[in-house]
C-alpha cells in the first residue's frame, strides 16, 4: 500500500486478532473519525434458548470522535456489523 493510498481516509479497521490479540481499545488517528478494533475470535460457552452452547465470540471495539459522529449512530453501525457477522454463511463468499 502506497502512502498516497492511505491519504484522505475517514475510517480504519485494526485487526489484532490475526496475531492473537484479544480486547483492546484502538486510538483514532486524525484525520480519521472512527476505528474498529477486532480481537481474536474464541469458542466460549453462552446461554442460548435457556441452554448452554459453544459459540465463537469475536471482540469488537468501535472508537469514534464524538465531535463528528453521534453516539447513537455509531452504536447502530456496530450493531449492523454484528448482525451481519451473526448471519454470515460461508457460502456468501462464493463467487457467482
Structural classification? alpha+beta
* Sequence of strands across the biggest β-sheet: 1-2-5
Query: What is the strand tally?
Result: 5
Overall geometry comes to globular
Q: What fraction strand?
A: 25-35%
| CATH C-level name | Alpha Beta
Layout of strands and helices, then pairs:
Blueprint: E1 11-15, E2 34-38, E3 42-48, E4 51-57, E5 60-64, H1 71-86
Parallel strand pairs: 1-2
Antiparallel strand pairs: 2-5, 3-4
Keywords:
about 100 residues, alpha+beta, Chloramphenicol Acetyltransferase, 5 strands, about 15% helix, 1 helix, two-stranded antiparallel sheet
Task: Please outline what is shown here.
It contains one helix and five strands, in the order βββββα. The chain has one helix at residues 71-86; strands spanning 11-15, 34-38, 42-48, 51-57, 60-64. A three-stranded mixed β-sheet has the order 1-2-5, covered by helices on one side. A two-stranded antiparallel ribbon has the order 3-4.
Overall description:
It is a single chain. The chain has one helix and five strands. By secondary structure, it is an alpha+beta fold. The chain has one domain: Chloramphenicol Acetyltransferase, CATH 3.30.559.10. A hairpin with a 2-residue loop joins strand 3 and strand 4 (51-57). The longest helix has 16 residues, at 71-86. The chain is globular.
Amino acid at each position: 500500500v502506497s502512502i498516497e493510498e492511505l491519504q484522505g481516509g475517514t475510517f480504519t479497521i485494526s485487526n489484532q486478532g490475526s496475531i492473537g490479540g484479544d480486547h483492546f481499545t484502538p486510538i483514532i488517528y486524525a484525520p480519521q473519525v472512527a476505528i474498529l478494533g477486532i480481537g481474536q475470535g474464541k469458542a466460549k460457552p453462552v446461554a442460548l434458548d435457556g441452554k448452554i452452547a459453544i459459540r465463537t465470540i469475536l471482540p469488537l471495539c468501535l472508537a469514534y470522535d464524538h465531535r463528528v459522529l453521534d453516539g447513537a449512530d455509531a452504536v447502530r453501525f456496530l450493531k449492523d456489523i454484528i448482525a451481519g457477522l451473526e448471519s454470515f454463511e460461508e457460502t456468501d463468499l462464493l463467487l457467482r
